[in-house]
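Section handout 9: paired folding examples.
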Amino acid sequence: MAALAYVLLPLSGVIAFLTGRSARIRFHGLQAIAVGAVWAVAAYVASWTAPLVTVAVFVAGAALWVTLLVSSLIGRDIRLPGAAHLERIAEGIES
């Protein structure tokens, strides 16, 4: 279920966060929301610059997206820098 949080960023992250029964699923939901939002903002800001920068931001975001999707699918939970507070939020919510 954690890998499904990354399928349609950030929409699937919201669904995973709200319906997740474990802290792991809720964490991946929150991380997916954050990645989706940051990726969209970064792509928008990059569009103000050279087209090559926009492509680079898109490719970097896509690589991160696939990495998070596959790693959570095989059970390796990657925690991005700055995501420690997301884990505390996910653990603090009791089902």
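Moving on to protein 2 of 2.
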Amino acid sequence: MVLNSKYSLLKLLGDGTFGRVVLARDRDSNRDVAIKIIRDVERYMDNAKIEADILKDIRKADPRGTSGCAIMYETFVHESKFFCLVFEPLGTSLYDFLKDNEYRGYWMQDIQHFAKQSMQALAFLHDSLRMTHTDLKPENVLLCTMDARESRFPREAEWMREQKMSAKELKPYMRPVSSDIKIIDFGNATYDDEQHSSTINTRQYRGPEVMLSCGWDTLSDQWSIGCILMELYSGNLLFETHEEMEHLALIERIIGPLPGSILESASSSALKKWFTQQGGGRWRLNWPDNSSSMSSERHVASQRPLNKQVPTMHAGLTDFVAELLELAPGKRKTASSMLKHPFLTEMIYDD
């Protein structure tokens, strides 16, 4: 099949709720492209057109494609009903690559490079476009290459102990040939001067200011990246939960007590739902009093503080992540300032 009189379809790359993505060859330029074909459903089409407008703004501000954000070449309508977006072809998502490796984490050198590129991309979005992505997660960060090579997993012994697995049960560990990445999925991106939704982000990557309805800005993206980097290291969600109360308890267990500054700006409904006011006007999380189960209490109690989740030789990672997971958003570092963090230039050893 040929789309828009010039794109020869090569293969299906993936299916989703919104539609599908196919690999095609552009006959005019003789280059491969990825085409996102949106289902003929009004709300999917409307969302895709909003995303396309945002992607046009990104391309205009980044004509050379160096920002670390996905590049859209053009849009067209197929058979008068299918809205299509044409992108540079990229590899698999960081999540899918992690999953294919049976949730064994990435090499530290790769994580260091992911961290630097994430900050560069967010510095571009936040400073140049005044935009918050609002849905950063490993599924929305793609490797630029489809190629991988078999490698050893440097933290295999510790990982197997924690997972109670033997080497015989594992398939070969793969490492991407290149650690270059691009951020995708701008369908929910929000400009600073636009109406801000009350709830953003997938739960496990959602900052406390969003959970407590304090209002949010570009710094909420920083929190999400902090969660992502720790997941890429361990293979596990940093905040593995589906409950809001448990989520807050995990944050206090792993990061520390929620500061008064954020609780003072929280909505009255959030405070009433999850906290109790003590003497002196201070608020305390109703945990474990209002936990949903004993297993939930055990899950929270089993978590280690952030700085205990990596060995000493990798302390640079948790030093970096701690700046991103600053509980008070007003004290959280911007992406541009995080580019000066020593972790991004330190010599990494992964043995």
